[in-house]
């Protein structure tokens, strides 16, 4: 696999989605959680989606319950939370694991392409972000402390 477009994922409604359908877009792939101190970043992620979607940009949200069990709900509960609290319009996918023996193949790829601090591949917490170019290659990894708004300039340059 040489880019993210080679992967298939399951969306929040249980439908298979080929990431190939996002080819040509700039993507921000984020592992999310509904009960986390970083959960308010959903608002910033939605702001990026609204600001740049017409120019070929999309946020892709992947709920994950591996960090403090901060995403305990099922797909329906997660979708409802995101809609009611943040009016999310960007695609959400089924809950996945991003670390360990059952980590999703997409995240295996992302972590090898953009290791974290000191070369660590593990995702440290919710709301780790991966910026993906139009060619499907990983451009940069951002920590949970990096706000969506602070990535806006980089996204604009790529668009």
Summary?
By secondary structure, this protein is α+β, with helices and mostly antiparallel strands. The protein has helices at residues 41-52, 75-86, 105-113, 148-158, and strands spanning 8-10, 16-18, 26-32, 57-63, 129-132, 138-142.
What does this structure look like?
The longest helix is centred in the N-terminal third of the chain and has 12 residues, at 41-52. This protein has one domain: Glutaredoxin (3-Layer(aba) Sandwich). It contains four helices and six strands. β1 (8-10) and β2 form a beta hairpin. The chain is 28% helix and 18% strand. The strands form two sheets. It has a four-stranded mixed beta sheet with strand order 4-3-5-6, covered by helices on one side. Strands 1-2 form a two-stranded antiparallel ribbon.
CATH architecture: 3-Layer(aba) Sandwich
> What sequence of helices (H) and strands (E) makes up the elements?
EEEHEHHEEH
**What Rg do the Cα atoms give?**
14 Å
Tell me the number of helical segments per DSSP (H or I, 4 or more residues long): 4
Give average pLDDT, whole number: 95
Sequence of strands across the biggest β-sheet: 4-3-5-6
CATH class descriptor: Alpha Beta
What would you call the shape?
A: globular
What's the CATH superfamily, by name? Glutaredoxin
Structural class of the helix and strand makeup? alpha+beta
Helix percentage: 25-40%
Number of structurally distinct domains: 1
* Poorly predicted runs of 5 or more residues: none
Largest sheet: 4 strands, mixed
Report the sheet-strand fraction: 15-25%
Would you give the CATH topology? Glutaredoxin
From the N-terminal CA to the C-terminal CA, the straight-line distance is 24 Å
Number of strands: 6
């Amino acid at each position: 696999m040489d880019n993210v477009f080679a992967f298939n994922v399951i969306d929040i409604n249980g439908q298979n989605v080929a990431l190939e359908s996002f080819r040509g877009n700039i993507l921000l792939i984020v592992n999310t959680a509904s009960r986390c101190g970083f959960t308010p970043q959903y608002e910033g992620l939605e702001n990026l989606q609204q600001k740049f979607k017409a120019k070929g940009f999309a946020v892709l949200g992947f709920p994950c319950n591996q960090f403090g069990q901060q995403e305990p709900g099922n797909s329906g509960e997660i979708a409802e939370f995101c809609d009611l609290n943040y009016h999310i319009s960007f695609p959400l996918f089924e809950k996945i694991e991003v670390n360990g023996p059952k980590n999703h193949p997409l995240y295996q790829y992302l972590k090898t392409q953009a290791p974290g601090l000191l070369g660590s591949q593990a995702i440290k917490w919710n709301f780790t972000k991966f910026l993906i170019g139009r060619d499907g290659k990983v451009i940069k990894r951002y920590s949970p402390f990096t706000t969506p708004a602070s990535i806006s300039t980089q996204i604009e340059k790529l668009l």
